[in-house]
Design a protein that fits this description.
heterodimer; A: mainly alpha; 2 domains; 7 helices; 0% strand; extended; B: mainly alpha; 12 helices
Amino acid sequence: MSVWAIRIKVLLLSGIFVSIANWISTVRAGGEVVLPWEAFPALITMFIAIVVGCLVQDLFQKVFHITAPSILFISLVVVLISIPGLSPIAAFVEESFNKVGLLPLCTPILAYAGISIGKDLDAFKKQGVAIVCTALCTFVGTYIGSAIIAEIILRVTGVI
Amino acid sequence: MKDLFKDWRVHVLCLALTVVAELIATQKFTLFGKFGVSLFPMLYALILGILLAIFKAIPKSMMETASPYIGISVMFLTAKVSASIGPNLEAILKAGPALILQEFGNLGTIFFALPVAVFVFKMGRAAVGCSFSISREGSLAIIGDLYGLDSEEGQGVMGGYITGTLLGTLFNGLMASLLCSLGIFHPYSLAMAAGTGSASMMSAALAPVVDAFPEMAEQVEAYAATSQVLSSVDGLYMGLFLAIPITNWLYRIFKGEKKPEKKTAAK
């Protein structure tokens, strides 16, 4: 149960942090300001989806002995509640989630990561150049990989 | 119950870093007159944490306490990223075979970047986090959930994220210009390839194609935008079910390992 106690605690806290980050970011961006509590409908919906996702994960583990990452279950719950026509709250999900920016959502996560990463700083520093070069290679691989497949299919299907 | 609030310092510090980072706000500037670079608050939050660690302001116990909290707070990111899937499912039904199949080309990164990481730079597990994708927000969520962002894999994906933020538009713009001028690929193929999951990188990769073929601008832009939407729909699951397993498999082959945990340093 203590896993759940910690999970709920950190979810509630980081949810509040996100609402504050989101508020400041809208103020600083100079557009429409989203006050912290205006983000609550989205964050509470996310919170419920996360809890349901994690419960389903526990269920799969205990009953079916299937271990899968929580990201899978959380994501499936959110997808289900956001498909227009299938979910009665799809419009609400889309509208409320749009009030919370992707970037301010990441800030508290990376703050926790920043606090924590100090213990492995040497490894991080040592690999800096390697990581930068590898990351640039991922752009090349992704881009050319997609271009090759697109080119083949477009030619085979006679589009070009 | 008392134990539950024993770690209040970690959360107060997290809030402080978050607020300071957001107050600094996103900073945009242009490189060489045309390539936009954006610095995001999350980057400052990470760097502030690293600086505090360098100046020994964060005790080791606090670092260890914060570690599991990354995996929990990242669940909000999972929820947000997933919310773009449902409303866009229709786009898959409408897209042609080329648009759908080229999505699998995004896996091309593994076969290109992982060998470089392992053989040229002798990287360890960070190579997996860095090379399975182009390290955008969804990738942070995947690695954060599976390994934790403070793991070696996490360092890889965060390093990749930072690199992409700083150099992504510049690099994609140059790469697309080069490929466009080589004339190997049809502009339609280049347009589809441009949609990889990052809006700013897509614009950068698309611009040279539109410049070179203004008469096809409309079609090219539509292909890129659809490919971009498709990437946002399939990215999470493609990463989870294909990219991560394939990367781990290839990593083990490269390192001659049976299991992913330990590698014996054979020279």
